[in-house]
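TICKET #2291
ISSUE: user wants both folds in one file
ATTACHMENT 1:
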Amino acid sequence: MSKRVLAVMAIGKKYQSHLKKSEFMFQWYAKRCQAEFVVIDKPLDPKMKHNLLMQKMLFASFVSNADEAVLLDLDMLISPKAKNIFEIIHHDAHLYACIDPYGTDRFKKTAQRLWKKENIQDITHPQYFENAGLKDLINPQDFFALNGGAYLLKPKLVGESLQNLYHTCTEKYSLTPLALRHEECMMAFYSQSSKIFQSLPQTFNYQIIFDLFGTPLFHEIPGLIDTLYRKIMRRVVVFSELKKNFIPRSYQFHPKYLQYISSRLESESILHFAGGYVIPDQFLQPSLYPNLPE
């Protein structure tokens, strides 16, 4: 395995189908970063002690021969002008991820408008860790919740520890279901309690939902905020080819939505379409990416 690895997880037909449309983009970015591109298409823990999202904790041990590694979610759109994510690494930090905007106005508005959950709109970073069952193990005031769309890490330095935590966390700690829903809580707990964490610049994991629902864009893109549209989006498999038969193009690709994406691709390196938003096909064209790998 090469010094650098850039990987995605595509386990199951749904995700493998989506990868077919965007694999060239990830290959292009891996080449740009001088990294080996790896597709994880089988569970990293065949015994399924935890769900597939929790198994992201095993990624570092899976690529343990690499010096530096990146794991990206599939619902990413990489800018043709993207910066090299590996260039931010320095010797003091071994794990990088973006901090979620808990407690901010953008988060509160997104919680109200998208998730329709009044009970989470005022959650802060400390409350997140208290709700996960970690308040007796850490000082929640010193910890930050993470988004798992992009991880940059040093496998040789964190792989074994994360693997051990994956296998022992439920036995060692009194965790709530929140902590085990996905890997983000345990990754934050491990990296920050070990003093090896560094915040990843949001340009490498720019979550568009906080713009679409937490800013004035909410009132400017009616096709995205229509109640019926959101209900359909939540019932149709996110990456299904059948989606076009269910949703009129005027809703799926509202002009201001396309304009917004184009603008963000100019200013950010990697856009994260978390929340079920569709990446329009016009942005997934090989011709947009210079010097694609053969």
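ATTACHMENT 2:
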Amino acid sequence: MHDRHHDRNALTRSRVQALLAERDEFRTTVLEPEVDVAFQIAQIADVLVLDHQIEDRIIFHLLRALYRIPSETSPLLINAPSDPQQLVGYVERGFVGYITEDDLDERLADMVSIIAQQQVCLPPDIIPHIIERYRQLRSFLPQGLETRRNDFRQRFDE
């Protein structure tokens, strides 16, 4: 299993490397925030660990580039914000898990292991926010075919 980490904060990079080095199943490579270099190396990673401290435009540029190619790489956000709406935005963009700074030491290795197996690892408390976002987005879509048929039938019967 491979793990790639793209981060600008040396302390966080060292912390992540130390946490993942405790497990023999991980090979960790720390990347600097140059998107092109990170993208080339991340293409072969199972899990791409991205720090919330990186500018969103860099994170999203890297994710867009990564999703344009056939890849099994799954992104994990560390030092995640506590705001549920922000977190839903990261999930919408493709993150399959996130960890707050407080939980990093305790949960990082297990989450990388789960995500490397192509599983989503989201805490239950974010699910209602994701469902609400789904409902909001769905409200922008045209009515479904069945609803249209029912409306037509009602009008015809009147």
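RESOLUTION: both attachments delivered.
EXTRA DETAIL ON ATTACHMENT 2: The longest helix spans residues 104-116.
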